[in-house]
Design a protein that fits this description.
The structure is a single chain. The protein has 13 helices and 16 strands. By secondary structure, it is an alpha/beta fold. Strands 3-4-2-1-7-9-10-8 form an eight-stranded mixed sheet, with helices on both faces. The protein has a six-stranded antiparallel sheet with strand order 12-13-11-14-16-15. The longest helix has 28 residues, at 82-109. It starts with a strand and ends with a helix. The protein binds adenosine-5'-diphosphate, aspartic acid and magnesium ion (MG). Magnesium ion (MG) binds next to loops.
């Protein structure tokens, strides 16, 4: 069996969904478990509506709901014949009614918990899968809509819940293989799970990739397919480098480095469950299903024209400089700094240190004031927002001194101010920090040097 995940852009409209219906139909012999995101933009809209509800702005909530409802009913109407459309539209209407009641309750309480938000956003994936499964059935595939809350068991860290692998394995193995053995094609929601008690959770934004990866690992799938709107993983983000090219093959390490350092095409956690089981991950274009996309696997089998594989960036980063007041010896200083970030559950992306100080980057700014206050116990701390982390990735960087120096030469030619450089943390990536306004020029210059 395989797991086929379709992202939000691949199911954003009736036309986009129709392409995915064809893809699933043609792949039926490979026994897919189909995992879907919400239609593009819907999760953002739902998060927005929950917040507006908390402010008590009922008319705006009503207007937003109306537009969402129209959008989903229009997609369903286009894809389904009337006799099928009618019951599906009634079920969609009913779920909008439940959501509406819930948003009104939020407005009354003027409080939005993570738990309530997860329940609100879960409707997005519910709608997309309801329509998709019905349309698949209409096209002759025995599609079976399966609620992911009965499959993906998570802890209760709402909005960023962590899948519980053993418990999810039991649920998945009980329900999915029998459906497939009977010739069925299960269709389920990405991103959405539930606690053991059945309370709805979500596993972090962009998490449908991760759901699909967990499902593929626990079901020991032969392949995980991530269907998106570009020709696989490209040499750079095509929105800033229009000439970015397809990468036919990558290692698990390269793909996880890229995902971690910002390439939106893959959720960072996706690779891990697949690596552990050695399941190849294929990133494919639902607009061009014949394009081979990118395959991510343990080892490389094809010749590679360039030492570098890809360039990623993350914006919205802050650079933090901490200078020791020397009342502590260096190891105590370093462990104090790490302890501060541990206590505040804030992830450090990159870090360099010297005897007298540490410079690092973080993405999460919520605990800024508490973090700075705690750091100032051992020295002076300055928080510089508006930075970006750029990472160049390629297995070849391990050996190629020439390629590494070419990266720095290119940065020098661009004249960009580099505030931190890190190499050696992973061997296959060089990471550096620049100002956000320099992203496009820097990424384009590196791309031109290495790929064009
Ligand atoms: P989906 O809706 O399928 O989950 P995403 O928007 O999450 O799609 O991810 C696909 C997008 O990622 C692409 O449209 C592209 O703009 C962006 N992207 C950023 N970096 C890369 C890269 N290196 N290769 C491919 N796409 C990238
Ligand atoms: N719909 C969710 C989001 O937008 C999950 C996903 O698309 O992967 O974050
Ligand atoms: Mg995505």
């Amino acid at each position: 069996m395989i797991v086929s995940k379709f992202g939000g852009t691949s199911v954003e409209s009736a036309e986009a969904m129709a392409r995915c219906l064809n893809i699933v139909g043609q792949n039926a012999a490979r026994q897919p478990l189909v995992v879907l995101s919400a239609c593009a933009g819907v999760t953002n809209t739902l998060v927005g509506l929950a917040r507006i509800a908390r402010e008590g702005e009922i008319p705006q909530v009503e207007e937003g709901l109306l537009r969402l409802r129209e959008r989903h009913l229009a997609i369903a109407r286009e894809l389904l014949r009337t006799p099928v459309y009618e019951p599906i539209s009634r079920s969609i209407e009913a779920s909008f009614q439940s959501l509406r009641t819930f948003l009104h309750a939020i407005a009354v309480m003027q409080e939005l918990t993570g738990r309530a938000q997860d329940y609100v956003v879960s409707f997005g994936e519910h709608w997309s899968t309801t329509i998709f499964a019905a349309a698949l059935r209409e096209r002759g595939t025995n599609a079976l809509l399966t609620d992911s809350r009965a499959l993906l068991v998570t802890d209760n860290r709402f909005t960023a819940a962590v899948p519980l692998m053993e418990k999810s394995r039991e649920r998945l193995r009980e329900s999915i293989p029998p459906l497939i053995a009977d010739g069925g094609v299960p269709v389920t929601q990405g991103f959405i799970g539930a606690t053991e008690e059945g309370v709805t959770t979500t596993i972090g934004r962009g998490g449908s990739d991760f759901s699909a990866a967990v499902f593929s690992a626990l079901l020991e799938a032969e392949e995980l397919q991530i269907w998106t709107d570009v020709d696989g993983i490209l040499t750079a983000d095509p929105s800033i480098v229009p000439t970015a090219m397809n990468i036919p093959e990558m290692t698990f390490d390269e793909a996880s480095e890229l995902a971690y350092f910002g390439a939106r095409v893959l959720h960072p956690n996706t690779i891990l469950p697949a690596v552990e089981r050695n399941i190849p991950v294929r990133v494919l274009n639902s607009r061009r299903p014949d394009h081979p996309g990118t395959v991510i696997r343990r080892t490389i089998t094809l010749h590679r024209p360039s030492v570098l594989q890809s360039i990623a960036y993350k914006e919205g980063v802050s650079l933090l400089t901490i200078r020791s007041n020397r009342t502590m010896i260096a190891p105590a200083f370093i462990s104090h700094v790490f302890a501060v970030f541990g206590t505040h559950h804030t992830v450090i992306d990159t870090i360099v240190s010297s005897e007298t100080g540490i410079t690092l980057t973080v993405r999460d700014h919520e605990r800024k004031d508490d973090i700075v206050a705690a750091l100032e116990k051992v020295g002076s701390a300055a928080w510089h927002p508006g930075r970006a982390v750029v990472t160049v990735v390629g297995e070849g960087l391990k050996e190629s001194v020439a390629a590494r120096s070419q990266v720095f030469a290119t940065l020098a030619e661009t004249g960009v101010n580099v505030e931190l450089v890190s190499f050696g943390g992973s061997e296959i990536g060089i990471t550096f920090v620049i100002g956000e306004s320099d992203i496009a020029a820097t990424v384009r210059a590196l791309h031109q040097k290495f790929f064009e």
